[in-house]
Design a protein that fits this description.
This protein has 406 residues and is of the alpha+beta class. It has helices at 2-40, 47-64, 75-81, 114-122, 127-131, 136-153, 157-169, 175-182, 279-299, 345-354, 374-380, 391-402, and strands at 172-174, 192-194, 206-207, 218-222, 225-229, 239-242, 255-257, 268-269, 274-277, 305-309, 321-325, 333-339, 362-366, 386-390. It folds into 3 domains: 10-134, no CATH class; 162-277, no CATH class; 280-402, no CATH class. The protein has a 5-stranded mixed beta sheet with strand order 10-11-12-13-14. Strands 4-5-6-7 form a 4-stranded antiparallel beta sheet, with no helix packed on it.
């Protein structure tokens, strides 16, 4: 009886996974069609750029179809298909009743229908992606980032705090380990992908977690040399080379550290049951969380200092840390901190300016290696009751206040 029950539960999980795969593939294909229609109907778009955009979208559309069900479609047929119901362009619906196949994104005169903007809004595609014709890769990254924050906002406060901590502690690894650590959040946090689908991080069938962020490091082969490095932490000394001494069969190649922060790492099998958070979630979820935890750890032993993680008055994602300095006989000082680890200071400034101003002073903290961009961010955020500091600069400021230094 028990075996029968377990088998039925397994069948249910398999069926749900297949439905999720179909849904995701159809949504990706629909997004590609929306971007293509936006380019196709923009009369002011240069011909070469329109062609490049359509080719990018066609590639994304083909990739959305499952292996073995490749979409045999040329550019002319693709453009014609955008003017008709979308069913021939989308992956088969299976048991998913989304009615996308009946949609028309263009009217008889070749103009965009209102449904396009509605669909993009519902599928987390920003209006700027349509107006400025973002490439597919950027749109997908934006969708994943927005989807992450939508999922996080729906969590209860304690669940939110648990998920933020797990982003830093368990961003990749064997499936059985991840499921155990994520526990009750596992079914609600579907941002993991199989490392076996990421050839860029594989070395002879193995992958290596960064000692800082625990996410797969990139393998770069240049001639006879092989470098393994973390994209986020290479500048801080996390990079390796392939050892000349080779192990036996079934043993991961040995890496030799070539940077000051290159702690020993052990290779893991790049198999389907080894998963990692998607790149956008790593970039905009894991890295900022690591920054927040580093800030907390550098202050937690300081006298008269209290650090609270994700304590927002209205909701836990309102800001990242509240740092309070209470020195006897002196005024209590408080910093509300929002940690940011973005590659582009210009994009960060734009994102911050698009947010509603907070009713309190906010401190934006960036990694130390972005110290040269602080002046730019300060200038862009003038008048927003916002300070911009590097992590080390804020730590110094808090410690001075804790010593009673003005």
């Amino acid at each position: 009886m028990l075996q029968s029950s377990l088998f039925m539960r397994h069948l249910v999980r398999v069926a749900l996974k297949e439905c999720d795969d179909v849904r995701i593939r159809r949504e990706q294909a629909l997004t590609a069609c929306c971007l293509a229609v936006a380019a196709e109907t923009d009369t002011g778009l240069e011909t070469a750029r329109r062609a490049a955009m359509l080719m990018d979208c066609l590639g994304a559309l083909r990739a959305a179809h499952a292996p073995g069900r490749a979409l045999q479609l040329g550019m002319g047929e693709f453009r014609q298909g955008l003017r008709a119901p979308l069913a021939p362009l989308l992956p088969p619906p299976g048991d998913v009743d989304d009615q996308f196949g009946e949609l028309r994104l263009m009217d008889g005169a070749g103009l965009v229908r209102d449904a396009l903007e509605d669909l993009c809004r519902e599928h987390l595609v920003p209006q700027a992606a349509l107006d400025r014709h973002w490439p597919w890769a950027r749109v997908r990254a934006e969708q994943e980032e927005r989807r992450l924050f939508e999922v996080m906002r729906r969590l209860e406060p304690e669940e939110y705090r648990e998920a933020r901590a797990l982003l830093a502690e368990c961003p990749a690894g064997p499936l059985r380990v991840l499921r155990k650590r994520w526990d009750r959040l596992w079914m609600r946090f579907d941002f993991f992908e199989a490392v076996s689908d990421w050839p860029w991080c594989q070395l002879e069938g193995w992958w290596y977690p960064c000692p800082k962020c625990r996410w797969p490091m990139r393998v770069v082969e240049t001639g006879q040399e092989v470098e393994v490095r973390c994209e986020a932490h290479r500048a801080r000394g996390v990079h390796y080379r392939l050892s000349l001494e080779r192990g036996g069969r079934g043993v991961a190649p040995t890496l030799v550290g070539t940077g000051r922060a290159s702690e020993p790492v052990v290779g893991l099998p790049a198999s389907v049951d080894h998963l990692a958070l998607s790149r956008p979630v790593w970039r905009y979820g894991v890295l900022p969380t690591l920054l927040e935890i580093e800030l907390r750890d550098r202050l937690k032993a300081q006298a008269h200092v209290r650090v609270e993680m994700w304590p927002g008055e209205l909701r836990p994602d309102e800001y990242d840390l509240r740092i309070t300095v209470a020195v006897p006989g002196r005024r209590v000082r408080t910093w509300r901190v929002d940690a940011k680890d973005w590659a582009s200071a210009a994009a960060l400034a734009k994102a911050l300016l698009e947010r509603e101003p907070k009713p309190y002073a906010l401190c934006i903290v960036v990694p130390d290696h972005q110290g040269h961009e602080v002046a730019y961010l300060k200038a862009r955020l003038t008048g927003r009751r916002t300070k911009v500091l590097t992590l080390t600069r804020l730590v110094e400021q808090v410690k001075r206040a804790a010593r009673g230094v003005r």
